[in-house]
Amino acid sequence: MIDQNRLSLIALHFIPGLGDYTIRQLVSYCGSAEKVFKTPKGKLLKIPGIGPVTAESIITGKPYKKAEKELQLAEKHSVEITFYTDKKYPSRLKHIPDAPSMLYVKGNFDFENGKTVGIVGTRKATSYGKEQVENLVKGLVPHGALIISGLAYGIDIQAHKQALKNNLPTVGVMGSGMDIIYPAAHKETAIQILEHGGLVTENPFGTQPDAHNFPARNRIIAGLSDALVVVEAAEKGGALITAEIANGYNKDVFAFPGNVKETFSAGCNNLIKANKAHLITAVKDLEYIMNWQSAKPVTDKKKVTSLSLDGYSDEEKLVLSFLLDKSPMAIDELSWKTNLPISQLASVLLSLEFSGLIKSLPGKLYALVC
């Protein structure tokens, strides 16, 4: 039996002009995706971002036919469709405002892997770039890291291949529909990835790998990554867009330096020069910044619970309650669990640091003070 609400969620994605944010708004205002389609046109028009054309598209119910076909295709291709309201939806994306409201997922991997590393770079990788990827991935084996990239030529496919070679899970984020592997030359690798990782896209079946899909794809790579590593990049290109997005998401960005005379070193060198990326020459640099070598600090919960929190704000108490349960904790995870925007949370964390209750650690981690 078809779940009508899930069908309705898919149908919303086939309404022209509806973006991820607006879809979330509609569901929030109406109570569920199913109720969106039962809401009178007059009430729909009162919802911010909904105009007459969009409202008319909703009340006709025509998107349901496309949604039903999409479900059939998903079943045919063994693809799981997950929504932002699902427990299986990746927690790393939940706190990002422009994250996809629906994902197509295929393969055998865990979004909640303890450590995730995105690796991106030029499509025209040099032997130097390929060597850095090989050494980096090999160094990440003890961490069991999930390697994330975009299945593209050059650095991307090298990252996937090295992950497969070293038995690390890897995820390819696609700028096309799940039924269209792009580039076609990487179909064999994509099949191998499905056995030791997975493929992810936000695009419906049949979506061609058009240019405008790739910047959108890049935000998923950035959002899923705890650390994003740029290996080789020219002054302009997709890798730099991904790095810019990752910085906006408060992620740790790393870049391998290169020869100042080489075209595909310019992007990385500029990221480092502008303090938009940590300089990395080996995996130990990433381990240090991300605090992946350090053992978790031992926290004396009794000391914290015995303190009087009367003078602290509700937000500060909320943050402390989560750090009592798990310490240290990354700022993005704290943001998701407390439902506080990163900007507001950063202010709360700074206040608690001044109070001597918590301390910041490398990798944007926060822990209770022993």
Task: Outline the structure in words.
The structure is a single chain. The chain has 370 residues and is of the alpha/beta class. The protein has three domains: 73 residues, 5' to 3' exonuclease, C-terminal subdomain (DNA polymerase, domain 1, Orthogonal Bundle); 185 residues, 3-Layer(aba) Sandwich (Rossmann fold); 68 residues, Arc Repressor Mutant, subunit A. It is 45% helix and 13% strand. A nine-stranded mixed beta sheet has the order 1-2-6-5-4-3-7-8-9, sandwiched between helices. The chain has a three-stranded antiparallel beta sheet with strand order 10-12-11. Helix 8 runs parallel beside helix 9. The N and C termini lie far apart (54 Å).
Number of helices: 18
Radius of gyration: 22 Å
Beta strand %: 5-15%
Topology as a string of helices (H) and strands (E): HHHHHHEHEEHEHEHEHEHEHEHHHEHHEE
Low-confidence stretches: 294-305
Q: Write the CATH fold name of the largest domain.
A: Rossmann fold
Mean pLDDT: 90
How many β-strands, per DSSP? 12
- In helices, the fraction of residues equals 40-55%
Class from helix and strand fractions: alpha/beta
